[in-house]
């Protein structure tokens, strides 16, 4: 049994609390036309309405968005009545859980009737019971920083579980005992790692203990829900911290076992304690490159997955060489297959699976360039094989250059600078983004006098290979090569 929650003996500085509360009020004023209207509408009908959960947390942090969560003592059908005539759009897809959604003037709201749920601790969906007080509603929530509320009309704070203290201390804790919270809904363990990644908070000791002891309970959660939380974690501000919490508590063994499997594998360059730590460093560096290119851009899930998983094939390919060396031959091939299998199991979309596994497969190709000069043909093939993934591949490869040897690191970066310069030069000359044979399928059929069929595809591929090897050919040369190929195939031309 984990220890019960203890109140921090060092109270948050009053000025920090006041600043956080001022942030919340400022944020509420910013959305006041909608929030105030709703509060007045519910109050006039004799009902209380509270801004609640993540919305209050984000208001206190000064980052409230335009998706707002509310809770009320009004039952769902009464909520529908109060929204009718006020909202531009209403939806009730969550009404069985007491939730109605609405949209008005650029703001989306979800209003949920007070809940006092019970769980069978077999699945994760509760038996929904409507409650009668804000107190009962807040205690059932996942974390204290999500268990605060603001009464709309008076704008008074309700904080029954030390949420403000935890927010100021950047601590993630549960309102009730974490064992009970996670037994009710094991997904909350993944949400803990996700919030650590998103907010940069530290999980309370008792939360870490409960996650460790109960990690196997995550098997109750569907792969689809696991995937959603994992994606949000990786797209957070501090994804490394979230991954480390998953691994340290044993949760990763159940949801992404390929990552902790790298923990004991020694990198062939002996530049990191193990491949696991190396992969976390690559993740950090890929994110730095992503943000440097577009500071205000959306997180790149594909790049981050590829950075985390790029070396998952090393454990299966490790070989101890004479003289004490270690090799991981073809780990990119094995890793791409492992990545595809895991992402399929997590029900990722097909395009994400293909892109991530392709990046894992391609990430080692550059090392052949750094070891010796590539021909223009090899550069074309690098660009052609990467296709639209080339910008991501650039970031992944650069992020993977993590040696502590400054001279070697500088040499690797100079080599990749040179490769990018060559790509740019050849692209300007040859339009590498659209590498195609110098004759299209219709011309091939006309010149050979054949109907559509396998021979046309073979001829097209042959001409494309020549295009990659030689660069652009003039028309006469392309026609001559086509006829030469056709004669080798037994055609009379």
How would the blueprint of this fold be written?
Elements: H1 14-30, H2 32-44, E1 49-52, H3 54-60, E2 67-72, H4 76-83, E3 89-91, E4 99-104, E5 107-113, H5 134-139, E6 148-151, E7 156-159, H6 163-169, E8 171-172, H7 178-184, H8 187-199, E9 202-203, H9 205-213, H10 223-234, H11 239-249, H12 252-255, H13 275-293, H14 301-309, H15 314-317, E10 319-320, E11 326-327, H16 331-345, H17 350-362, H18 367-371, H19 376-386, H20 390-399, H21 406-430, H22 441-448, H23 454-470, H24 475-488
Helix pairs in contact: 1-3, 8-10, 8-11, 13-14, 13-20, 14-17, 14-20, 16-17, 19-21
CATH superfamily label of the largest domain:
Beta Polymerase, domain 2
Number of domains: 4
| SS elements, strand count | 11
Low-confidence stretches: 1-12
- Characterize the quaternary organization of these chains: single chain
Q: Look at the structure and give the mean pLDDT.
A: 86
Instruction: Report the sheet-strand fraction.
Output: 5-15%
**Helix/strand/pairing class, anyone?**
alpha+beta
Q: Which structural traits does this protein have?
A:
4 domains, Beta Polymerase, domain 2, 54% helix, 11 strands, seven-stranded mixed beta sheet, CCA tRNA nucleotidyltransferase activity, 493 residues, nucleotidyltransferase, alpha+beta, disordered N terminus, Hydrophobic Seed Protein, two-stranded parallel ribbon, 9% strand, 24 helices
């Amino acid at each position: 049994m984990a220890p019960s929650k203890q109140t921090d003996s060092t109270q948050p500085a009053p000025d920090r609390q006041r600043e956080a509360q001022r942030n919340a009020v400022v944020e509420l004023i910013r959305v006041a036309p909608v929030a105030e209207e709703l509060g007045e509408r519910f109050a006039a009908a004799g009902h209380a309405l509270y801004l609640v959960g993540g919305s209050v947390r984000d208001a206190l942090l000064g980052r409230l968005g335009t998706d707002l969560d509310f809770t009320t003592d009004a039952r769902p059908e009464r909520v529908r009545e109060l929204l009718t005539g006020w909202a531009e759009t209403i939806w009730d897809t969550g009404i069985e859980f007491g939730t109605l959604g609405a949209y008005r003037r650029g703001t989306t709201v979800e209003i949920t009737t007070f809940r006092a749920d019970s769980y069978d601790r077999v699945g994760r969906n509760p038996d929904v019971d409507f409650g009668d007080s804000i107190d009962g509603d807040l205690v059932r929530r996942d974390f204290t920083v999500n268990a605060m509320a603001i009464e709309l009309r008076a704008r008074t704070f309700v904080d029954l579980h030390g949420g403000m203290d935890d927010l100021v201390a950047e601590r993630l804790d549960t309102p009730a005992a974490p064992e009970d919270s996670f037994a009710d809904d094991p997904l909350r363990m993944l949400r803990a790692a996700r919030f650590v990644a998103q907010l940069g908070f530290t999980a309370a000791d008792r939360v870490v203990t409960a996650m460790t002891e109960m990690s196997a309970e995550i098997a109750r959660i569907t792969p689809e829900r696991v995937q959603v939380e994992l994606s949000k974690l990786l797209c957070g501000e501090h994804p490394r911290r979230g991954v480390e919490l998953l691994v340290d508590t044993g949760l990763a063994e159940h949801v992404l076992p390929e990552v902790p499997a790298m923990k004991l594998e020694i990198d062939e360059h002996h530049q990191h304690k193990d491949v696991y730590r190396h992969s976390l460093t690559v993740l950090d560096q890929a994110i730095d490159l992503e943000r440097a290119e577009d500071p205000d851009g959306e997180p790149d899930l594909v790049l981050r997955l590829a950075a985390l998983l790029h070396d998952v094939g090393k454990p299966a390919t490790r070989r101890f060489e004479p003289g004490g060396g270690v090799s991981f031959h073809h780990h990119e091939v094995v890793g791409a297959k492992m990545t595809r299998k895991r992402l399929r199991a997590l029900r990722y979309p097909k395009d994400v699976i293909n892109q991530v596994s392709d990046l894992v497969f391609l990430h080692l190709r550059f090392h052949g360039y750094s070891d010796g000069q590539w021909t223009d043909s090899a550069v074309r093939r690098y660009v052609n094989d990467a296709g639209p993934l080339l910008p991501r591949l650039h970031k992944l490869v650069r992020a993977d250059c993590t040696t502590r040897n400054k001279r070697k690191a500088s040499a690797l970066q100079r080599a990749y600078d040179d490769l990018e310069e060559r790509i740019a030069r050849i692209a300007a000359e040859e339009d590498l983004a659209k590498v195609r044979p110098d004759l299209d399928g219709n011309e091939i059929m006309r010149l050979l006098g054949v109907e559509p069929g396998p021979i046309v595809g073979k001829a097209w591929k042959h001409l494309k290979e020549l295009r990659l090897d030689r660069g652009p050919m003039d028309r006469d040369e392309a026609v001559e090569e086509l006829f030469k190929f056709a004669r080798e195939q037994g055609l009379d031309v």
